[in-house]
């Protein structure tokens, strides 16, 4: 991709679309009883969900490092913070959706994926 910033924005949009669709599930009232608060302990925990969440955010970390001038620990912290904010926003949206189960595990694995992506780019 020619512009890392465009790649970063495009991938953030992809993440939002993938994690919030179908939009017909949005009902406008909260389903707090469906929230899985404790990471990696709530059931059902699928290894495919964990791997999918990690892989979804690896390009996010890669594109962010390419798009920014930050390097080292500062870049890692910014990557983690942005991934945390995006992931928490999506999970909060899912609280208001039928057939979605917001999870702290998803947030953790998304941040881990972004950190892996940023580390790949930083140490390349």
Your description of this structure?
The chain is mainly alpha-helical and 124 residues long. It has one domain. Helix content is 65%, strand content 0%. It is built from 4 helices and no strands. Helix 1 runs parallel beside helix 3 and helix 2 crosses helix 3. The longest helix is centred in the last third of the chain and has 24 residues. The chain is globular. The relative contact order is 0.22.
What would you say about this model in short?
The protein is an all-alpha fold and 124 residues long. It has one domain.
Q: Largest sheet, if any?
A: none
Per DSSP E runs of 2 or more residues, the count of β-strands stands at 0
What's the average pLDDT? 89
Q: Any idea how many domains?
A: 1
Quickly count the helices. Answer: 4
The outline comes out as: globular
Task: Return the string of H and E elements.
Answer: HHHH
Q: Any low-confidence stretches, pLDDT <50, length ≥5? A: none
- Fraction in beta strands: under 5%
